[in-house]
Design a protein that fits this description.
It contains 18 helices and 4 strands. It has a two-stranded antiparallel ribbon. Strands 3-4 form a two-stranded antiparallel ribbon. It has 3 domains: 8-102, Fumarase C, Chain B, domain 1, CATH 1.10.275; 107-203 and 214-356, Up-down Bundle (Fumarase C, Chain A, domain 2), CATH 1.20.200.10; 359-455, Orthogonal Bundle (Ribonucleotide Reductase Protein R1, domain 1), CATH 1.10.40.30. The longest helix has 37 residues, at 106-142. By secondary structure, it is mostly helical. It is found in: Cytoplasm.
Length: 456
Amino acid sequence: MWGGRFGEGPGDVMREINASIPFDKRLWQEDIAGSKAHAQMLAAQGIISGADEAAIQQGLSAIHTEYEAHGVPEDWTLEDIHMVTETRLRELVGEPAARLHTARSRNDQVATDFRLWIRTAIGQIDGGLKAFQLALVTRADEHADSIMPGFTHLQVAQPVTLGHHLMAYYEMAKRDRCRFADCARRLNQSPLGAAALAGTSFPIDRSATAQALGFDGPMGNSLDAVSDRDFALEFLTCATQTALHLSRLAEEMILWASQPFGFIALPDAWSTGSSIMPQKRNPDAAELVRGHAGRIMGCMTSLMVIMKGLPLAYSKDMQDDKPPVFEAYDLLALSIAAMTGMVGNVAFQTGRMRAVAASGFSTATDLADWLVREHGLAFRDAHHVTGSIVKACEARNMGLESITADDLAAVHPPLAGCILPDLSVEGSVASRTSAGGTAPLRVREAVAAAQKELEA
Ligand code: ARG
């Protein structure tokens, strides 16, 4: 394709390091779509003849059918997906194929293909995240009243509802989808027509190709169009953030499935066994989601480091932009599917969760709040009094729910003969009705709002 000025072809290692076809063949559909749009525009502008365009279109359609049926041939001598397809086009339609590359370079071609590919990938991820949200909302609805311990420092802090806990991840997924949508909006500009770096002397119509490919319009600067990969990095940062969220839920699933917690039972379909310990039921899927988050982050880091020192415009380093994006996409799509399946299918052990929620003086804050509300103490004083009560209970090995008015009066005399507060975990969660709070009432509202959002 470019051999005119060379006496001999590249050596074996040169060929090997140069070949991107093993991975960029994933761009085949976008590459054909880009070429079709370009050919149509060239003919409309009178740059190639209508007959040439017809031959090109028919050849590209035939190649589409071939690739679909048999895959993309991996010919290293042809370097990349652009050359492989153009070479095949030449075999199929002859001379008109050689006119396709008029007013175009692989530099704007690959930038176009990659933007199109990521746009489609974002659509897939969005669908996956929506299914994940649906699973969360369904389980949250089921468990709007179920009580579990809320933790800070992984110490029992205050009782919360399981539905509320699950809906926290709904909110995270909502922002993740929003970030991806924003990325898709910003990347939807066409590099096609930037040619190698400077634009072209042919009378091309960049708006026409942009429109044909579903872009909002052509990019404004040819150097920028062929040399930035911020859209790929943005995709990777969105993927990383999403993976971080999934990884935290995965970590919780792993903890919850362990015997000391016993908060969930993994169904058979989401468990793996041990080859030596017959009793084992391991949460491998969640562990791999946690591991994959590390790899996805690595993909992001790797492209950032590839790009950081590159002068404008195109450098071959940028061919290495694709493997991390493909890898991150594959890992993320699988992670989302795995977490969706796990959330939808684990059996929550609500009795155990409630028992742990009631341990560790988890309603001490409710007692302090009661001292403020019913007995006019300042919160800091109420905190101190409650701390002394907890200390006394601890010494007597009893929980807060069994204290008497005399116990309270022993610490704070004005409480003698008082009517005791409700320090049950049920009373605690039911009282937390502030906006965004854990009360079952609020969880039901959040679930209803989420169901509406997902239907929209
Ligand atoms: N395979 C190349 C890539 O992915 C296409 C662009 C090649 N351009 C060039 N001037 N060699 O970056």
